Structure formats: structure tokens, C-alpha cells
Amino acid sequence: MKAITYHGPKDFRVEHVPDARRETDTDAVVRVSRSAICGSDLHLWHGTMPIIESGFVVGHEFVGVVEDAGPAVRTVRRGDRVLTSALIGCGSCSPCRSGLWSGCSVFSTSGGQNVFGFSTALPGGQAEAVRVPFADTNLFRIPRDLSDEQALFLTDILPTGYMGAELAEVGPGDVVVVLGCGPVGAFAQRSAQLRGAARVIAVDLDEGRLARARDRGCEALNPKTDDLSAHVAQATEGRGADAVIEAVGRGDLLLKGIEIARAGGRIAAIGVISEPTEVPFLALFLKNLTLRSGLVNPQRYVPLLVPLIKAGRIDPTEIISHRMPLAEGVHGYEIFASHAENALKVVLQP
């Protein structure tokens, strides 16, 4: 089958790999109808993650149709349209039973990787088909009245954005600063609005992404031309932001969030900060700040977010800037990584 594979930083290739197939009775095989390039995939592209293996299929955001289901699978069957949680769990261990599928002890104790598309053990979804372990835990039927593209981002980034607003305890009347207007930042902004924020200040260096943030009702600010600290102070009569969401994955932005948050404010770090970052604990302590972070558990958020999409409260497809065949996926990486062509989200079709 055809797939996009990793061979090193900026060395992604469209090539033929062995067909996806079941390995256990709890597996399913999904024929992919749509996949997407995630900001987390760019860590592979830029070489900021310590990856030793090569040749594996990338991508963890995908939807499709069940092509094969093992005899132990009970919740889905052949022909069902499904979305897959990007982070998978066994469903039976203590972390999974407590709702922390991303911390599944079955995968951690075996040394496995439980995110699609970062190892040979769990090939990703930028392919024609994917094996999904523990299908009953990690596959969700797509409602008939949702399109594939409406469901696609429930696999990871829409739950991540909503989790950011939740971790930051965004509530009615809050002034919220979202650092980053990429796909996750866009959904964090929408989620803050859904939870009742009075003002959402969207921060980015990309004017195209700032324009999109304005369109969704945010105050857009480019720190190259505007003073973020002064803007927040003016917006809050000197108090500081009630909530700050770091949605890029940069340590310096986390530190800026600590600076601009009000006393007693809440900070959520949902970007993948891969470089060592010294957090000034004394500043957190003296300002009584709450700092929370963590990997998303899409299994928890899918049932919460589907009704919002069906009701028209949020349109996940608003972030799609490019659609292209899987065969052109490497070009998709190039433009997304470089912010060329005003790229915000690239969707691939096998």
C-alpha cells in the first residue's frame, strides 16, 4: 500500500509499504479516507525529537472505514465509518480505567509507543490503511450527519484545544490569551469562546493566521509590532490575564505566559515543549499561579465535542487551508512547515 514514511529530518517519502493487517483478535484495520498533517508531525520534520528508527509510516490524525475487525472486537464492524484516537490505550489497565489512556501501562511497560506514526511498532495514518490495536477502546463511529472532515480533527487537535481551555479553567467573563494561532491554537481560541470568555487575545507572528483569528472573533496581536504585556495590562485594567494557553510548544512563550497572567491566574501548556525549560517556581508561588499540562486523551473528549459539532457550535473544517492527494503529501509538509501559501491545515486523501 502507499504511505508517507520517515527517513530523517525533512526526508519524508511517499512509497509502498506492506499492507496493514490485524495482528491480534482485538485489532481492526481501517481503510483511510482522510488524514492530516499535525503540528506534532513537524517535530519529526524538523528533527527536534530523538527518533532512532526510520522507515515507519507517519501521521496520527485519520478517519476511514473499518475493513477488518478481529473476533474480539465488539463496538465496530466492517463497513463502519470511524475516527481513531491519536493516542491509544488498552482500555483495561489502571490508567485507562481512570480515563488516562495516554498513560496506558500496557504500552509503557512494554516499551511501546502509543501515538500513531512515531515508530515502527505503531505505523501511522498517512497511508491507505492502518492497523488499530484495542479497537473497542480507540475507534469511534462517526455519526451519519457528520462528514469525514468534520470528524477528522476529533482524533487529536480539537480535543487538545478544548483541553487547553479546560486546564486553564476558562469561564464566563475571562480575559484569555492564547499564544499561537496554529491549528491547536485556533481550537483553543474557539473553545475559550465556547466556555464564555469575554475577550480572547490571539498571539502569533504569522499575519495570515492572525487574520483568521480576527475572523473568529479574537483580538489579534503580533508581538513583533505590538507590546503584548502592555496590551494585556490595558485589557485588564492592570490585573493581567485570567487564563493563558501556550499552544505552540516553546519554552519562552510559557515564561511569557507566567509574566502576563494575573495573580491567581491559570496557565495551560498544551504545546509540545521539547527543549529544556527552566520554570521560575518563585514567580508561580508568589503570584499563586496554577500551571497545568499533559497529553490529551481524545477518548474522553470525543463524546463531549461531537454534539457541539452537530449543533453547529463549532466547525472543525474552518482550519483547513489545503487539500491534496496523499501522493503530494511531502509538499504538504514543506508548505506547512514553512508557513508558505498561508498554510494552516493540510488534509490528505489516499
What's the arrangement of secondary structure elements?
Layout: E1 2-6, E2 12-16, E3 28-36, H1 41-46, E4 61-69, E5 81-84, H2 94-97, H3 105-109, E6 129-132, H4 135-138, E7 139-141, H5 148-152, H6 157-167, E8 175-179, H7 183-194, E9 199-203, H8 207-215, E10 219-221, H9 228-235, E11 241-246, H10 251-260, E12 261-269, H11 281-286, E13 290-293, H12 298-310, E14 322-325, H13 329-338, E15 346-349
Parallel strand pairs: 8-9, 8-11, 9-10, 11-12, 12-13, 14-15
Antiparallel strand pairs: 1-2, 3-4, 3-6, 3-15, 4-5, 5-7
Helix pairs in contact: 6-7, 6-12
Q: Would you mind describing this structure in some detail?
A:
This protein is an alpha/beta fold and 350 residues long. The chain has 2 domains: 2-156 and 297-349, Quinone Oxidoreductase, Chain A, domain 1; 158-293, Rossmann fold, CATH 3.40.50. The chain is built from 13 helices and 15 strands. It has helices at residues 41-46, 94-97, 105-109, 135-138, 148-152, 157-167, 183-194, 207-215, 228-235, 251-260, 281-286, 298-310, 329-338, and strands at 2-6, 12-16, 28-36, 61-69, 81-84, 129-132, 139-141, 175-179, 199-203, 219-221, 241-246, 261-269, 290-293, 322-325, 346-349. Strands 3, 4, 5, 6, 7, 14 and 15 form a 7-stranded mixed β-sheet that branches. The model has no long low-confidence stretch (mean pLDDT 96).
